[in-house]
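Deliverable D2.4 — example input (structure tokens):
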């Protein structure tokens, strides 16, 4: 078998030098090599959404994404969305304000997916939110409150004074 090659992965604006083998997923690299455990492993098979991160602003399932080939690409995780001064991202705050979680295991993935859902323009109605958040499962069934949180952020974003990153 070929020796693993060194690769620089950019996560939340920082560069990490890794030696992934050809099967290392972004999820395992984040949690086990980089030490960012905010991104959760649920099914590890692309079916629950718990591992959702952003790859250059697009939501992706990190359990299905191999590190190999991602040199120089920018990944953002739940640890990277708050303001550097410590102010929560509007979606994080909305999840708190609307009580949009119980155990919290699915929450990082829900929030990363919700941010993308609003930015994609797929949060125009409750039904649309349901459809475009359907890849993120919540075993605690916090769905109504998750939708309320997303609607609140969408409404705030429609105010020209606001935007989300
Ligand atoms: S852990 Fe990736 S989709 Fe479930
Ligand atoms: S809050 Fe428990 S799985 Fe969603």
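Example output (designed residues):
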């Amino acid at each position: 078998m070929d020796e693993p090659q060194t690769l620089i992965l950019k996560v939340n604006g920082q560069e990490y030098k890794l030696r992934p083998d050809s099967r290392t997923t972004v999820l395992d690299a984040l949690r086990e090599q980089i030490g960012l455990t905010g991104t959760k492993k649920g099914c590890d098979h692309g079916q629950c959404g718990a591992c959702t991160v952003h790859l250059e602003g697009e939501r992706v399932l990190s359990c299905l994404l191999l590190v190999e080939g991602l040199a120089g690409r920018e990944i953002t995780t739940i640890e990277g969305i708050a303001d550097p001064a410590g102010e929560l991202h509007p979606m994080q705050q909305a999840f708190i304000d609307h009580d949009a979680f119980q155990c919290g295991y699915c929450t990082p993935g829900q929030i990363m997916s919700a941010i993308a859902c609003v930015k994609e323009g797929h949060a125009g109605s409750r039904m649309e939110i349901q459809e475009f958040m359907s890849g993120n499962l919540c075993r605690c069934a916090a769905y109504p409150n998750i939708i309320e949180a997303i609607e609140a952020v969408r409404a705030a974003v429609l105010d020209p004074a606001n935007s989300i990153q």
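The chain has two domains: 7-78, 90-158.
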